[in-house]
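User: Okay, second chain of the day. Same drill as before: sequence in, structure tokens out.
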Amino acid sequence: MRVKLGLIAAAMAVLLASCTVGPQYAKPKVPSAPAYSEAPPTQFQGMQGWKTAQPSDAMLKGKWWEIFGEAELNALEEQVAPENQTLKIAEANYRQARANIPFQRSFRFPTVNVSPSISTNRISGNSPTGDAGVQYGYFSLPISASYDADLWGKIRKSVSAAREQTQASAADLENVKLELQTELASYYFEIRGLDSQKRLLDDTVVAYHKAYDLTNNRYNGGVASKAEVAQAKTQLNQTSKGRSWNMPLPF
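Assistant: Same drill. Structure tokens below.
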């Protein structure tokens, strides 16, 4: 009998020792091609300084927009974080994922439940028994404890999954923030470009208007022809399309 019990105990020990928490994830290797059959473009031949990309989504990018030296852009970028609802959602998801780590880790420890209760009773003074008016109390302190041994690695895997989810949420948060910042900077410089085009158009219209006035004066002085005046007027009107220009010819 003792031999059988020893064999059973040894078999159980071997069984428990053979239990693992599952295979660890290993990033699949994707070997790069040693050479390419297509010839590289001429402009890329002899170029140095190429290196393998190293994504760093979770790294803080800092205030990169300050390199442009635009005070107005700096002020607008500072308003992205506190005002954008999409970024607030990403921040809430990150906080939720981070709070899930200690929650999953708590299952490693025993769980103790306590539900005390206190009650006070008084027998009515009109009771026909001899205990009329007697008061008595009742106190209860039930305690229960439970512990789930992590023999199969379920809790360890849950903690690891929560930690990796937090890292992914942190990367998502930084990506959302970077996307919003770059989108704002792109719109800002696009508007600045349109403003420059508008100023250039206004200046051109003013120059063509002066050229028209000069041609018209030369026509009145008998130096220029009607064709030159018409050409100056046409040039002015074509440049100032969309404006309320109504310039009659002097003839």
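The chain has a mean pLDDT of 79.

User: Thanks, on to the next one.
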